[in-house]
Specification:
By secondary structure, this protein is mainly alpha-helical. It has three domains: about 90 residues, Fumarase/aspartase (N-terminal domain) (Fumarase C, Chain B, domain 1); about 250 residues, Up-down Bundle (Fumarase C, Chain A, domain 2), CATH 1.20.200; about 90 residues, Fumarase/aspartase (C-terminal domain) (Ribonucleotide Reductase Protein R1, domain 1, Orthogonal Bundle), CATH 1.10.40. Helices cover about 60% and strands about 5% of the residues. It contains 19 helices and six strands. A two-stranded antiparallel ribbon has the order 1-2. The protein has a two-stranded parallel sheet with strand order 3-4. It has a two-stranded antiparallel sheet with strand order 5-6. Strand 1 and strand 2 form a beta hairpin. It is elongated, with a radius of gyration of 31 Å. The N and C termini lie far apart (about 75 Å). The structure holds arginine. The site of arginine has 9 residues, from helix 6.
Length: about 475
C-alpha cells in the first residue's frame, strides 16, 4: 500500500498486528491528548482503584499493585508540576499515562490494563469528571442563590413594576422578583442532583464491550470510587453518553436562566429604566464615547448561551445514529463538555459577583409604579368583593381607565363621585386598593407578592442557605 507522508516510528500499545507505523497525518487527526489531558486526575484515580482490585483478586501481586499506585502518584505530581511530557503519538490521556508508567516501573506497569479497555476506562473518567463538576456547579448555583436572597432581604420594602409583554402590569416587591430567580436556580440544582443518580454508576468492568472472563470484582471498585451502583449491561455501558446529554441540557438551562437575568440587568441599567446601578468595577467603557458605561458582563453571559446550547446540540448529533457499542465518534464528546463546564462555571461565578455589586434605585422603581394604571386589576378585584361579576368588573374598570387616559390623570386622582359614575358599588374604602402599597399587600395568596408571603419564602430560603 502507498501513502504519501511519513509514518511515526513510535510503537503503539496496540501496535502488535500492524506491519507499518501510523501516518503522521492520522496521528494528528486522531489524537485527543491536547484536550483530554484534563482528565488526568480521574484517569489516575480510576487506575489506582483498578490496580487495588486486581491485587485483591490475585490477578497481580500486592507488590505490583503498590508499585503501580506509587508510579501513578508520581505521574500525577509531574503533571501538576508541569513536568510531564504529553506525547501526541500516544493519542490520549489513557495511553500517555500508561506508557509513562511502564517506562517508570517496568513490567508491573504492563499489567495495569488487565481486564480493562479504554472504552470502559474513558467512560469511567468522564463519569468521575462530571460527578465532580456537577458538585462544583451546584456550589456555584448555591452562591448565586445567596446573592439573590441577600438582595431580597436588603430591598424587602421596595416596590417595582412587574411586567407582562414588557408592559407594566402590576406592582410587585423587588424581593419577589429576586426570589423568582432563587426558585429558578433552585430547579437547576435539583436537575444536576437528579442527573448525578445516573452519572454515579460504575462503567469499569464492561471492558471493550462484552465484559471479561477474568475474575474481577466490580463492586469493590465501585466502593473504592464512591459509585452507588454498577452498570448492568456491558454493551450499553461503553456506548452510553446519556448522562452527559443530561448534564449538558441541565447546563443549557442554567445558562438560559442566566441569559434571561442578563437581559433584565441590561435593561434595568439603561437610562430608560434606571432601575439599578452597576458598580464601576463591573462595567466597561467605550473607546470612542467617553460618557459610556456598558453592562458587558451580562451581555457576555447572554452571548455565551449560544455556545452552551451549541455544545448540547453537538453531543446530540454525535450520538445520533451511532450503532452499539463504542465508536470513535464518542471521543468528540469531550470538547463540548469541557467548554460548557468552563462557560457555565465562569458565568455563574461572575453573575453572583455582579449581583453583590449592584444597587437598586428605589426612587426610580417607585416612580415607575405610579402611572400605567397598574392597580386596575385591584379595582376589578375590589368590585368582585362587592359582588360584581368579574367580567362586568373588568369592563367597568376598562371604562374608568379609558376616562383617565382621556383626562390625562391617574386612577388615584379621581374623586369618589367620579369613580361612582362607573359603578355604584364603589365606596370610600376604594382608595386603599388603588395605592401601590395597598395593591402589593393585598396579594396574600401563597406565592403572591404581599410582604407577608414574600417574607415567609425569604425566611425559608435563608434557613435553607444557612443565612438565618
Ligand atoms: N480517546 C478515546 C475516547 O476519548 C478513548 C477510547 C478509545 N478506544 C478505542 N478503542 N480507540 O473515546
Amino acid at each position: 500500500m502507498t501513502h504519501s507522508k511519513k509514518t511515526s516510528v513510535a510503537p503503539k500499545p496496540w501496535g502488535g498486528r500492524f506491519s507499518e507505523g501510523t501516518a503522521a497525518s492520522v496521528e494528528a487527526f486522531t489524537a485527543s491528548i491536547h484536550y483530554d489531558a484534563r482528565l488526568y486526575r480521574q484517569d489516575i484515580a480510576g487506575s489506582c482503584a483498578h490496580a487495588k482490585m486486581l491485587a485483591k483478586q490475585g490477578l497481580i501481586s500486592q507488590a505490583e499493585s503498590e508499585s503501580i499506585i506509587e508510579g501513578l502518584e508520581t505521574i500525577k505530581q509531574e503533571i501538576e508540576r508541569g513536568e510531564f511530557v504529553f506525547r501526541p503519538e500516544l493519542e490520549d490521556i489513557h495511553m500517555n499515562i500508561e506508557k509513562t508508567l511502564v517506562e517508570k516501573i517496568g513490567p508491573a506497569g504492563e499489567k495495569l490494563h488487565t481486564a480493562r479497555s479504554r472504552n470502559d476506562q474513558v467512560a469511567l473518567d468522564l463519569r468521575l469528571y462530571l460527578r465532580e463538576e456537577s458538585g462544583r456547579l451546584i456550589d456555584l448555583l448555591t452562591s448565586l442563590q445567596k446573592a439573590f436572597v441577600t438582595l431580597a432581604r436588603k430591598n424587602l420594602s421596595a416596590v417595582m413594576p412587574g411586567y407582562t409583554h414588557l408592559q407594566r402590569a402590576q406592582p410587585v416587591l423587588v424581593s419577589h422578583h429576586m426570589l423568582a430567580y432563587y426558585e429558578m436556580f433552585g430547579r437547576d440544582i435539583d436537575r444536576l442532583n437528579d442527573g448525578l443518580k445516573r452519572i454515579n454508576v460504575l462503567p469499569l468492568g464492561a471492558a471493550a464491550m462484552a465484559g471479561t472472563g477474568l475474575p474481577i470484582d466490580r463492586d469493590f471498585v465501585a466502593r473504592e470510587l464512591g459509585f452507588s451502583a454498577v452498570s448492568a449491561n456491558s454493551m450499553d455501558t461503553v456506548a452510553d453518553r446519556d448522562f452527559a446529554v443530561e448534564f449538558l441540557s441541565a447546563c443549557t438551562l442554567i445558562q438560559l436562566h442566566l441569559s434571561r437575568l442578563s437581559e433584565e440587568l441590561v435593561l434595568w441599567a439603561s437610562e430608560e429604566f434606571s432601575f439599578i446601578k452597576l458598580a464601576d468595577a463591573f462595567c466597561t467603557g467605550s473607546s470612542i464615547m467617553p460618557q459610556k458605561k456598558n453592562p458587558d458582563i451580562p451581555e457576555l453571559i447572554r452571548g455565551k448561551t449560544g455556545r452552551v446550547t451549541g455544545n448540547l446540540m453537538a453531543l446530540l448529533m454525535i450520538l445520533k445514529g451511532l450503532p452499539l457499542t463504542y465508536n470513535r465518534d464518542l471521543q468528540e464528546d469531550k470538547e463540548p463538555i469541557f467548554d460548557t463546564v468552563d462557560t457555565v462555571g465562569s458565568s455563574l461565578a461572575i453573575a453572583a459577583e455582579l449581583l453583590g455589586n449592584m444597587e437598586f434605585q428605589r426612587e426610580h422603581l417607585l416612580e415607575a409604579t405610579s402611572g400605567g394604571y397598574m392597580t386596575a386589576t385591584d379595582l376589578a378585584d375590589y368590585l368582585v368583593l362587592k359582588n360584581v361579576p368579574f367580567r362586568q368588573a373588568h369592563a367597568i374598570v376598562g371604562r374608568t381607565v379609558a376616562h383617565c387616559i382621556e383626562k390625562g390623570v391617574d386612577l388615584t386622582d379621581l374623586s369618589i363621585a367620579e369613580l361612582q359614575q362607573f359603578s355604584e358599588s364603589i365606596e370610600e374604602d376604594v382608595f386603599k386598593v388603588l395605592s401601590v402599597s395597598g395593591s402589593v399587600e393585598s396579594r396574600v395568596s401563597k406565592g403572591g407578592t404581599s410582604g407577608k408571603a414574600v417574607s415567609a419564602r425569604l425566611q425559608e430560603a435563608e434557613v435553607k442557605l444557612g443565612l438565618a
